[in-house]
Amino acid sequence: MNARASAMQNLDLSNLAAQGLSLAAIVGAFMRLVPEVAAFAALVWYIILIYQSATVQHWLHARRVRKIAKLKREMAKLEATEMIVVDKKKHRESPHFVPGDDIK
User: CA 28, CA 30: separation in Å to the nearest integer?
Assistant: First the structure.
């Protein structure tokens, strides 16, 4: 077993121990054996673990990608609109412009 595998195993054991301790704190708070602060700390621990999970991170990444794609579409529409407005101004400023002959 190399050092990395050993470190991962220790990490898994420490993580498992912390989760067990958190669960014990929540159960103990419901049974009035430990203060509610311990249950709150355990709840915060579980929320952090859930947020850091691969599934939630995947959902957040996919949401960011969709948001960026939406913003790029909106930006393309704005740039296209701006080009139309600029073309109308250039047409009106040209020496061959006849009033009443506007681009629609």
Answer: 5
Determine contact, residues 44/25, Cβ cutoff 8 Å. Answer: no
Exposure of 89 by Cβ count < 10 A (0-12 exposed, 13-18 middle, 19+ buried)?
exposed
Kind and range of the H or E run holding 20? helix 3-30
pTM (whole model) above 0.70: no
pLDDT digits (tens, 9 = 90+) for 53-100: 899 999 999 999 999 999 999 999 888 887 776 666 666 666 665 566
Q: How far apart are CA 46 and CA 49, in angstroms?
A: 5
Tokens of 79: 């740039």
Residues 16, 89: Cα–Cα separation, whole Å: 68
Per-residue pLDDT tens over the stretch 8-34: 555 678 778 888 888 888 888 888 888
